[in-house]
Amino acid sequence: MSTALKPPNVVHRRGKDTIKSWPLADRMAYYACWAVGIGLCFIAGTLILFMLSKGLKYVSLDLIFSNPAVGADQSQTGGFLAPILGTFILTLVGTLIALPLGVGTAIWIVEYGRPTRLARAVESGIEVVAGTPSIVLGIFGLLLFSNGIFAFMSFTALGGAVVGRSFLTAGAMMSLIALPLIFTTTREALQQVPAQVREASYALGKTKWSTIRKVLIPTARPGILTGTALGMGRIAGDTAIVVILLGATLQLEKVGSAPIVSTLRGTGSTLTSYVYNNSPAGEGNAPQKAYAAAFVLLILVLVLNFGIDLIARRSKKETV
Amino acid sequence: MNESAAARSERRAERSLGALSSLVLVLIAAMCTFVLLKAWPSFSHNGPMWFGWGGNVDDQLTAIFNSPANPAKWDYTIRTWPILYATALVTIISVGIGIVVSTLAAVFIVEFAPDSAKRVVSPVIRLLAAVPSVIYGLIGILVLVPFVGNHLISEGRKNAVTFVVQLSGASLGVAVVILTIMITPIMVAIIADAFRAVPNGWKEGAIALGANRWRVMWTVVVRSARPAIIAAAVIAAARAIGEGIMLAMVSGSVGFAPNPMDGITFVFEPMRPYAATIVDNAEGLSVKPFGQTIYAMAAVLLFASLMLSLGGNLAKRPLRKYGVRL
């Protein structure tokens, strides 16, 4: 029997909450989080690098600056100048329609919002539009614009039926894809304008409408720009509406003789439909051209994305 | 006099903005009416069996496409079960995987990632969300599908089912993998926002009680952000249901219902959801009965997305408490 007293149970003071001291299940969850985070980065990196390598291999100035043509093999089918132009025209048309709609709706919701029920219905309505698949929007657009009253937007076929396929009709439906994004970011930006700013403007004798025009819209401009850039990215990247509503014709088919209107009323294709049609899923089956066009499209989307980051960073600098 | 003119123009501004905003409601009403009216003959000829099973749906579509010219003899018979099943299958599986992956990724971004990693991961995930679906489809059809078809599916497996369905590599598995990659970034963005909105005091309280960082995230943050996770899942499901182009490219485009009883072969079986069916058959829309059948599929998609929007709205309601707006 030893006389030495047993030391009292030593309480191990945990200095720091280190991963090693966690139970096994928690540690596994911790590593799973890391794995998922790194995995997503890895997927994105692989995707970009893969598209970059394929793109740089197949893209050439010849392809970018020549129009698609009908040909027996890949050396004769030309490039994709018309689809690039198509993407720009369509994005422009869609954004021009969506911008006033989205900004106007956001202003009405935030600044007026009466009657409340209607405002709430409009907000949910925009959510519904955001959730509607673009393929459904496209197929609905075809139905809508084939009506006689919309003949001015596209053209009338030989039998007298309105075709309903043109840059204008596709752009109108594309605007619905961009609308929710522009609306949400504008609404957010307007809500972040402090009430004092509005009150100061009223105190100076400005009316509500001129406050909106001269104070609120300039303040919310970074938000509006972000939403527009996001919307443009979505429009440029959408394929379903193009396949159904733009006709996905090889070249820009003009209708009539008026210089700009003729293109807008005519059909065409975009980079997305060009990629789709040249992949094994479409008729062309020219993977190299599909890769090259997809590369150009990806660069376009990345530039837009970069622009959004730039806007966000700059507006942060201004406010802080 | 001057005052009242100003007031009148103010009122006019409000009215016209209100009218502009209400356009969206008119549009939704028009969309539902137009599509439903156009789709009605297909539904009324088949009744509830429109969603039922029987026969080969691709043969039925061909028969409808080749209907005789006489409207009285138009063929409408269709049983879209394989398509409905494929839509549900691909959506549920990829959203299910997406929930787990995106929750873990959001925990990583909000809590575990060191600042330097945070600065990389968030833009990268946003980039994944920005990549157009046709590029995902292109990589799927040119890289993943041939790889699966040549290396993962053995000859024996192909021969075993060759009388039922051809296994080319375009399959449920590839579709689910790509779709998951497409919807995860959307979910991560929403869930991470909600995680950040959880009050710091709650987390500190849990830490004070001796919970480690993972336990804090799991028991406090993830739990209180559950509505956001559901909302994210709903939004992702809407995206997945409506994804036509990518799925038309990689799903194999066969009106076949993959059978889970087939074991591993199940993953390699082709299929085709509603949205992809519409994309594949867009050229036949001018053939009347065929167009009506395709519009009926669009009506189903429209209904599903309406329901999802409604569900998402309900799911998001509890979030308003924390001042989180999605």
Walk me through what this model shows.
- The complex is a heterodimer of chains A (about 325) and B (about 325).
- Chain A is about 65% helix and about 0% strand.
- Chain A is mostly helical and about 325 residues long.
- Chain A folds into 2 domains: about 25-50; about 60-320, MetI-like (MetI-like fold, Orthogonal Bundle).
- The relative contact order of chain A is 0.13.
- The model of chain A has no long low-confidence stretch (mean pLDDT about 85).
- With about 325 residues, chain B is mainly α.
- Chain B has one domain (about 1-320): Orthogonal Bundle (MetI-like fold).
- Chain B is built from 14 helices and no strands.
- Chain B has helices at about 1-45, 55-65, 80-110, 115-130, 135-150, 155-160, 170-195, 200-210, 215-225, 225-240, 245-250, 265-270, 275-280, 290-315.
- The chains are: A mainly alpha (about 325), B mainly alpha (about 325).
How do the helices and strands line up, and which of them pair or pack?
The complex is a heterodimer of chains A (320) and B (326).
Chain A: H1 24-58, H2 61-64, H3 81-112, H4 116-131, H5 134-145, H6 167-191, H7 195-203, H8 208-219, H9 221-237, H10 240-246, H11 261-265, H12 271-278, H13 287-319
Chain B: H1 2-46, H2 57-65, H3 81-112, H4 115-130, H5 133-152, H6 155-160, H7 172-197, H8 200-208, H9 213-224, H10 226-242, H11 245-250, H12 265-268, H13 274-280, H14 288-316
Helix pairs in contact in B: 1-14, 3-7, 3-10, 4-7, 5-7, 7-10, 8-9, 10-14, 13-14
